[in-house]
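testing teh design pipeline on a random one, pls ignore if ur not involved
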């Protein structure tokens, strides 16, 4: 079934975007893309603008990650596009279905030196699934639809379309085909059966579930597989919360014990990268379950690696017809280690020391965050503690920069989260180093009435660099920030609110005020610069 659409290039693009479920546009104003704004304005299509293009792309990525649908950023030509490349690259590493529409200098004057004339495709092609210049208005709906289908097809990821000035401003008339979701890809049945048999026969199996489990809507299938095979589950990325912390097979603190003693490690929906020791788990056999053959590890040789729709693979694991080993003793052993680690964490999170230890900040946040709160990490040292101490209760509530590790996601992610979930708490956990990348976009949140809470761990240093450099060389350089800087005053100057907290006893009332404020509110917590996250001493 097709629909006839006509109008200028912006209207043609918007028709295709809406057909694919895009519901909002993030941008920073630029003349090359005015027709897209015109189309949105006339149609009552939500449009949110920012102070730096990277925030527009990060906002679109947050929408894509949280909602499992495309996010849209519109960037003007030249520096608009180049400013957004870090966001595109993060989306590429995070498999986020983001579409960036870029303005482009007019083709009919190409080579004459028009304003911001630049061929963007060679820059964005390495960090997108598809990049194309669309030279005619009539071709825009086809290009948008094809790009979004590509973005949503596993392995998901960002796409880019360049729209020359005359194409997006011209009037066109074309057919828009009905949108069909990508068909699920079935993994090789023999590979799935081999993997299931390995897991079922293992004496000490472990599952590690990552972001693609959430992106692929495979959370229920993961739970079913874990319960059917009685395998303990650890999570990372947006896999966090796939099993609630109260689930008898949900583990977070006993990972070192589990991976040291496991005989089969099942990694589902996340790469075998630096976060997982590059897939080296000693003598344990590795089962790597991925959503597309392109995601199979090439630097290690798994015992099995099914590639296909994660729901189908995990459901097949749950329905495994063969014998199953009894894992009760293994689960109980890990539960002892988990409970002991939680007891240690509880002591650290209740620490009354001044300067404030980062663990205490997270102890207070655990008290005030609702089960469905969206928690965003933007930082290094301070946010590392978040991964240790916060345990999301629900899937789809955790946003971090992912394996690319790009700072500056915070305000864009906050905007995308607030737009996606206007009735939930949105809390950004930010290091004072990361604050330098995006804090100006608090003004965008204020102006568009998008309240969030920002908690800055302010230790006046680049923590993940200062301590290791001192350990290696006996000194450090380029690792200090202004101690006690008033980031709360910055937010106040931009129209929000905030306060400085220097004593542990003052944390709880400050957080209560922040979450009750109804405006962008920054709690500036002076944390102990000597208290470094343990990973800061390990550059690997």
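output:
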């Amino acid at each position: 079934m097709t629909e006839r659409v006509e109008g200028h290039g912006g209207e043609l693009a918007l028709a295709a975007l809406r057909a694919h479920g895009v519901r909002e546009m993030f941008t920073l104003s630029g003349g090359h893309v005015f027709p897209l704004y015109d189309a949105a304005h006339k149609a009552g299509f939500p449009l949110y603008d920012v102070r730096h293009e990277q925030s527009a792309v990060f906002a679109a990525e947050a929408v894509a990650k949280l909602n499992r649908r495309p996010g849209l950023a519109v960037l003007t030509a030249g520096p608009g596009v180049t400013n957004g490349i870090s966001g595109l690259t993060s989306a590429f590493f995070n498999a986020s279905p983001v579409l960036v529409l870029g303005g482009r200098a007019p083709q009919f004057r190409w080579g004459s030196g028009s304003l911001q004339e630049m061929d963007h495709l060679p820059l964005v092609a390495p960090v997108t699934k598809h990049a194309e210049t669309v030279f005619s208005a009539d071709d825009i709906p086809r290009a948008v639809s094809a790009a979004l289908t590509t973005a949503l097809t596993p392995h998901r990821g960002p796409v880019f379309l360049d729209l020359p000035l005359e194409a997006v401003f011209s009037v066109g008339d074309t057919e828009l085909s009905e949108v069909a979701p990508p068909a699920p890809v079935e993994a090789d049945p023999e590979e799935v059966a081999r993997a299931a048999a390995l897991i079922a026969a293992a004496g000490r199996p472990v599952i590690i579930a990552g972001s693609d489990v959430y992106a692929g809507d495979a959370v229920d299938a993961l739970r079913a597989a874990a319960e059917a095979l009685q395998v303990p589950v650890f999570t990372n990325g947006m896999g966090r919360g796939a099993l609630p912390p109260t689930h008898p097979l949900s583990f977070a603190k006993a990972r070192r014990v589990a991976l040291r003693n496991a005989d089969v490690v099942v990694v589902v929906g996340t790469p075998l990268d630096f976060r997982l020791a590059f897939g080296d788990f000693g003598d344990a056999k590795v089962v790597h379950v991925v959503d597309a053959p392109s995601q199979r590890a090439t630097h290690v040789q798994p015992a099995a690696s099914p590639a296909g729709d994660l729901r189908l693979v995990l459901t097949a694991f749950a329905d495994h017809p063969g014998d199953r080993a009894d894992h009760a003793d293994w689960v109980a052993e890990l539960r002892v280690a988990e409970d002991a680690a939680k007891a240690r964490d509880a002591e650290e999170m209740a620490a009354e020391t001044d300067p404030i230890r980062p663990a205490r900040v997270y102890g207070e946040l655990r008290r005030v965050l609702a089960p469905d709160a969206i928690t965003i990490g933007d930082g290094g040292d301070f946010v590392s503690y978040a991964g240790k101490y916060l345990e999301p209760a629900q899937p789809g509530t955790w946003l971090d920069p992912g394996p690319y590790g790009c700072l500056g996601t915070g305000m864009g992610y906050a905007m995308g989260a607030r737009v996606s979930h206007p009735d939930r708490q949105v809390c950004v956990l930010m290091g004072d180093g990361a604050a330098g990348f995006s804090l100006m976009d608090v003004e965008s949140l204020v102006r568009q009435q998008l309240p969030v809470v920002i908690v800055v761990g302010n230790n006046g240093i680049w923590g993940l660099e200062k301590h290791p450099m001192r350990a290696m060389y006996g000194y450090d350089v380029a690792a200090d920030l202004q101690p006690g800087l008033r980031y709360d005053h910055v937010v106040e100057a931009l129209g929000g609110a905030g306060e400085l907290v220097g004593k542990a006893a003052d944390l709880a009332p400050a957080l209560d005020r922040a979450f009750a404020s109804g405006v962008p509110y920054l709690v500036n917590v002076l944390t102990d610069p000597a208290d470094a996250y343990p990973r800061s001493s390990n550059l690997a």
